[in-house]
Amino acid sequence: MSTTFSDLANSVDPEKGTALIGTRQPLSGAAGRTQQDKNLDTLSPADFKFASDASDTQSIQRLIDRLSESDVHGKVVRLGGKHYVCNTPIRLKDGLTLDGEGATLDFRGVPHQARTRSMYAAATTGDETPLNADAEPGAVVLRLPAGLALSPNDLIKVYSDSRFDDRTGTRVGELQIVRSYDSASGFLSLSVPLAYGYAVSEGAKIIQIHSLKNIRVLNTNFLGPQISNEIGQAWCLSIYGAVSPLISGCTFSGTSYAEVLLIDCLRGRILGNDFHGTDQNNALGYGISFANASRDCLAQGNTFFDKRHFYSTNNLAGYGIEGAAAGVVFNCSFLNGKMHRATWFDIAETSSGDAMDTHAASDWITFEGNTVFGSVGTGLNIEGANSIVRNNHFDECERNACVVKNHTHHSGSLLFEGNIIRNCKGRGLLVTKDADSGKGGFSFVTVRNSIFSNVGTESTSAVQIGIARSRVGSDNQVPRVLVTGLQVDAIGTALEITGTENGAMIADCDLRGAGRANAGVMLISRVPGALVNNLRIEATGANTTGMYCASTANSILGNLRVYSPGGSQGYGIIIQAFAEMPTDNLMIHDSRIDGFEKAGSLAPAVSYASIRNLNLRGCTSGFELGAGNNNTAADIIGP
Q1: What are the transmembrane regions (predicted)?
Q2: How distant is the alpha carbon of residue 631 from its chain centre?
Q3: Which pairing describes strands 258-263 and 286-291: parallel, antiparallel, or unpaired?
Q4: What's the CA gap between 608 and 628, in Å, rounded?
Q5: In which residue ranges of the chain is CATH 2.40.30.240 found?
Q6: 3-state helix, strand, coil in the chain (%, to 5)
Q7: Spatial separation of the C-alpha atoms in residues 184 and 117, rounded to whole Å
Q8: Which of 233, 318, 341, 622 could form a disulfide with 639 if both were Cys (CB 3.0 to 4.6 A apart)?
């Protein structure tokens, strides 16, 4: 009998203790099990905690390690809603779910050092491998050396020492998925074709990233390491080289660089989390960052308070992260977020500050359905091609509401529609290239059906497409522009379009503002072939010009209502020309100019202009045709 009791009390031998106790649910049809099997239904860090542990980190890590080595309970770590003090980082494993069930992981005791990671998962990175030189753009099957450690669903990056086609941009390190690899022949099959435009040369190579699968972090509160910005980067949760990671229902606070960082991840999902800055030092970083070649990732329904940056897409090459190498963040979406009191909101900030001179940091970014309130800096800053900014609400930004830049010359597009921008002290929208380096520019820009209210300053434009007028040169950067359906109430100039190659279409807009010198309420400069139709332009300043056009040859301006309710001593419309880019063959027709001292003026360098069917009754003086060749006016009502 004593031996039996001793066996039951044994907590060391797995064939004794609870393995000898039977149990069954008191329900019809229930099967009998041992108590040991029943205990495996619920595992917690307490099952792996020893008195000698310095903190809760060790017991949590033991639980993760043991679950990753077995199929027990579906590899789910349940923390049971408790508060855990962690003084060292925790490493997640492949295929594992961590469900905090409301638990708090307190990493505030993590030692202060650069690049601290509180919780992380990192894939194994292989070597650089030469790629065969005869691989064609659009290829699915490539040849690599035989015997590599590659498996289906592993991630790889493809590199070339040649530039890529301008239609796709200078992409480096685009993420690809291994569909199959024959270790005997070296033939590698990709799940998608090699991107069109790759210039594969003898210097081409791949970098192997052995991907993690289905890592999930749920319903957990993170108190991040209290590391000042001067010490270095810190991450609350970082995942490198994973397919379909999910972070949902969590709360993050208190890191200096990023609370959630996905590096080289595919189809990552960050859903319904809260991000908080705790004080000035600990709110300097990002809430969410998609880095390097992450693609097809989604951040949706997240809420942010007092962060310097809400989101970012970054290039973290050289940051000392396992396997991190440069790449382009591609096809990521930021949806339905609520953002309060951020000092900046960045998409595509680069690690060194000069990557904008070499390649775009993001491509095919969607920013939709978000609310950005009280940003101390710019509301949204995107650097990359093929972006969609749609149905967002920006309010009380201390600087610009939205800035979109593309550093790949004449590549990609921008769609900006359905947005509401209110009470911003800078521009409501700035679409440009890098004004200092002169590089970049979109091939097509569409801005439509948006409202700008109480936006801009006396010296800026509420909506500006193109670099500043004072910097416009012969290198035009937005070949095609469509602007329609805007309502703009500006402090200064309402709409400014400068430097396009193939014209612009501006239609059905209501523009109001005090204007500024040499700009007016609306400015079109160096835009040949412009088509301007059905605009209402209201000048609110005492000396405001309604519309200012410079070097707009072969343009047609029609169905305009340009007026100054309080009476302006300026011009209704000024047509100017720069010496290197004349304004010839311009037509103004079927329009009304009202309330100005002078209805309009053609500069001496303007020739072959046609002024037809204007109503100038509310102006003191008429339209000055200037000294150019063959300028004509007909059917003018008024002075």
Answers
A1: none
A2: 48
A3: parallel
A4: 8
A5: 124-210
A6: 5, 45, 50
A7: 39
A8: 622
Q: How far apart are CA 7 and CA 1, in angstroms?
A: 10
The token pair at 491 is: 């402090």
Integer angstrom CA distances of residue 522 from 15, 258, 527, 637: 84, 41, 13, 24
* Per-residue confidence (pLDDT) for residue 565, from 0 to 100: 93
The per-residue b/e assignment along 328-362, b for 16 or more CB within 10 angstroms, e otherwise, is: bbbbbbbbbbbbbebbbbbbbbbbeeebbeebbbb
d(CA 514, CA 494): 8
Helices of type H across 176-292: none
pLDDT value at position 25?
Answer: 78
Neighbours of 230 (CB within 10 A): 8
pLDDT at res. 132: 67
Mean pLDDT by 10 residues, the chain (639 residues): 67 73 76 72 81 92 86 76 93 91 91 76 82 68 84 80 42 75 89 61 73 92 71 77 94 77 90 75 64 84 74 49 49 78 49 27 81 80 84 89 73 90 94 62 89 94 74 54 97 91 89 91 91 97 93 94 93 88 90 95 92 92 88 89
Per the CB < 8 A criterion, the answer to whether 414 and 445 are in contact is yes
Q: Does residue 588 contact residue 562 with C-beta atoms inside 8 Å? A: no
CB 61 within 8 A of CB 53: no
Q: What is the pLDDT of residue 391?
A: 96
CA–CA gap between residue 588 and residue 569 (Å, rounded):
21
Token pair for 379: 């509301």
| Phi, psi of 175, deg, nearest 5 | -75, 135
Torsion of CA 626, 631, 633, 638, to 10 degrees: -10
8 A C-beta contact, residue 47 and residue 63: yes
- The pLDDT score that the predictor gives to residue 247 is 97
Report DSSP state, residue 627. Answer: S
3 state SS of 452: strand
Record the tokens describing residue 530, joined without a space. 């412009």
d(CA 43, CA 46) in angstroms, rounded, equals 8
The position carrying tokens 């991840």 is: 265
Distant-in-sequence, close-in-space partners of 511: CB < 8 Å, separation ≥ 6: 486, 488, 490, 494, 495, 521, 522, 535, 536, 537, 538
pLDDT of residue 469: 45
For residue 209 the two structure tokens come to 């990233």
Task: Return the pLDDT at 40.
Answer: 65
Structure tokens at 403: 């800035």
pTM, two decimal places: 0.85
Q: Are 341 and 324 in contact (CB under 8 A)?
A: no
Domain 124-210 has CATH 3.40.190.10: no
- Helical (H) or strand (E) element with 68: helix 57-68
- Whether residue 419 contacts residue 395, with contact meaning beta carbons closer than 8 Å, is answered with no
Query: What pLDDT, on a 0 to 100 scale, did the predictor assign at position 352?
Result: 28
DSSP H or E stretch at residue 7: helix 2-8
Q: For residue 27, what are its two tokens?
A: 């329900």
As a whole number of angstroms, the distance between CA 480 and CA 443 comes to 6
Q: What is the pLDDT of residue 540?
A: 94
Q: Which amino acid is at 479?
A: P
- Count CB-CB contacts under 10 A for residue 127: 10
Q: What is the pLDDT of residue 164?
A: 41
